[in-house]
Amino acid sequence: MSNSSDITVNLRVPFPTNREAQIAYDVLRVDTEPKRSFIEKNIKLDGNQLLVEFRGQQAKNVRVGVNSFFESLLLCCETLQQFGPPVTESYNHY
Prior knowledge:
3-stranded antiparallel β-sheet
């Protein structure tokens, strides 16, 4: 899908701690973009920051993808805030 006429949006989302960024990354990376959205979304974790790239050929498709991501991000952040900071550095409850 990638070519020179693609529209790209790059986001850097900081979190207070590496662990909170890891939780958000684990939650948000499972939601892949449907094929009918005509965009690609790549999420990476860099310390306490999420790096997110959206790429598509039409601005409206990229805008819808970014808006959808922000809705999920907001829900994730509200949930982290509601339950407080993580008490352990890793999830080992399997």
